Amino acid sequence: MPNQSYPLLETVNDPTDLRKLQRPQLHDLAGELRQFLLNSVATTGGHLSSNLGTVELTVALHYVFNTPNDRLVWDVGHQTYPHKILTGRRTRMPSLRQLGGLSGFPQRAESEFDTFGTAHSSTSISAALGMALASKIKGEERRAIAIIGDGAMTAGMAFEALNNGGVADCDLLVILNDN
């Protein structure tokens, strides 16, 4: 990766650090994160446009929600590089999609912030609904957030989960990333 300085991004080693920033700093952080992504993917390969499209969304989610207690469930795994970077894996990005390196998708064994292993499956709403209902049953104070893309909304499983979520009394947020 080219030697480039990311003064704000380098202070964020996990979402707790992110939440210490002032709101006006988030714009600059997103700019640094976007440049870091460009340099990183240029070196390792991977999915670029889907990740550039989730920079601000990822910053906002980790800023607003108390992750990892609150659970983010990404539907399309190859839009999660910003999530990986902001959850303590920035220095490991040169190993992305390399043998023994970071996965190109969320993996529960890789980080406590990866609450559900996924790729292309339209399962985020079902998984987040299950987590939300489990939290309610256990009396836990946590939220479940499903981030689903417009392409994944073509699957019947997503609509089935929305139907069930519509009548479930639980703390579930579904975000449609209509890119």
3D structure, described in words:
Helices cover 42% and strands 9% of the residues. It has helices at residues 15-19, 25-44, 49-52, 55-64, 81-89, 124-138, 156-167; strands spanning 71-74, 144-149, 172-177. Helix 7 (156-167) links the parallel strand 2 (144-149) and strand 3 (172-177). The protein is globular, with a radius of gyration of 16 Å. The mean pLDDT is 93.
Number of helices: 7
* Low-confidence runs of at least 5 consecutive residues: none
| Category from helices, strands and their pairing | mainly alpha
Report the portion of residues in β strands: 5-15%
Largest beta-sheet characterization: 3 strands, parallel
* N-to-C order of helices and strands: HHHHEHHEHE
What is the global morphology?
globular
State the strand order across the main sheet. 1-2-3
Q: Output mean pLDDT.
A: 93
Number of strands: 3
Spatial separation of the terminal alpha carbons: 28 Å
Helix content bin: 40-55%
Please tell me how large the radius of gyration is: 16 Å
